[in-house]
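Fresh eyes needed here. Kindly weigh in on this sequence plus structure tokens:
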Amino acid sequence: MSSFRQLIDESVKAYDEGGLPLFFGRGLKYTHNKINERLLLNPNFPPLSIEYGTNSYPFGHRDKYLYYEGGPKCVPSPSDTVVEAGVYRGYDTAMFAKLGDQVIAFEPSPRNYKFSKYNLRRFNNVKLFNKGLWNEQSELEILYGSSGGDDGFLSPDKGGQKTSKFVPVNTLEEYVNQLNVDEVNFLKIEAEGAEPEILEGMGELRPEKIVVNADEERNGDSPSKEIMDFLQSKGYNLVGMSLGCVLFFVLDTKYHYAFRPEYR
């Protein structure tokens, strides 16, 4: 279905449900999302936002994996190397490519990889791999969900678990060594419940900033406590949360009394 036809259908539905206020509200939201998607995937358009009343409208970026509050706290810097585990359609990858120096992105789902490769074709500072991050070297089977956003190595929370194919996986530490990357500065993980295994695969790597989606996708549960315990034991502080499940961590080299095992 074309974007214009979809806009018409959604507008008619909104009018039927709530009259003109809902009609204009959904129409503006849909239009903004479509414009932002085009600008986001344009490497020449810088990230910016427009304030209107109490609302902020991003253009050329997304806020989900960026934590600001009181100034940049968990945001890629211009000189940063970003690693992204879980690309989906490449929207966050594009944002990281604009904010950082280079992005090394891993998308194990073949169908998501196909879409993201097309969307990111104009970014020359993105290296995209149809591989997965894990806690050991192996091959794992991708299970398809009802949409690409549910594809993963664990049982999808939505969909019929249609089998795709086996894809290579390895640890983050080993991939970084293979690519001759000096260091990773910013790490983003959204892996449909497999976040703990990916973090375990960091080895001796210590990115300065880590953002993890800890939604309830690990067999219906959230791995948030497991993630927080693991990263705190490695010297990270939880500095923020977004949407109730996106956790933001920064590396703290100071020893904290609360990190002693008996207090975790």
